[in-house]
Amino acid sequence: MPWAYLLKCADDSYYAGSTIDLERRLYEHGTDDLGPLYTRRRRPVELVWSGWFDRIDDAFWFEKRVQGWSRAKREALIRNDWEALPFLAKRPSAQRKLEEQCDGPQEACRALVSRLAALAPQPAAYPGG
């Protein structure tokens, strides 16, 4: 079964990966011979998010996408805060501009961003979040 996953490393960084056998891959992250060098140097690692996909190439595509995300977007994924992702995808200057237009707390700003995002074409929902 194809999976995309996110590990939190001992140095507080995140590692995104994909696999067809999540349990085996998590074991490999803990071994000296099989785990990637990145996590080998940052043990222990902890699984903080995983999502099941229909096809391995979809899981791999999602892994590559998450690798390009900011820490804030990755942490929104971990919290399953899908509504925050459109806001966090914006440039910092665009985020500030939207926040300035909001006269209330962060939740009010998220509501505004959600309304704006609803007007734009939406990508397919991601499974397993």
UniProtKB/TrEMBL annotation:
Superkingdom field: Bacteria
Domain spans labelled GIY-YIG: 1-76
Pfam entry (one): GIY-YIG
InterPro entries: GIY-YIG_endonuc (IPR000305), GIY-YIG_endonuc_sf (IPR035901), UPF0213_domain (IPR050190)
Gene3D superfamilies: GIY-YIG endonuclease
Family: Belongs to the UPF0213 family.
Protein name (Swiss-Prot/TrEMBL): GIY-YIG nuclease family protein
Source organism of the structure: Nocardioides humilatus
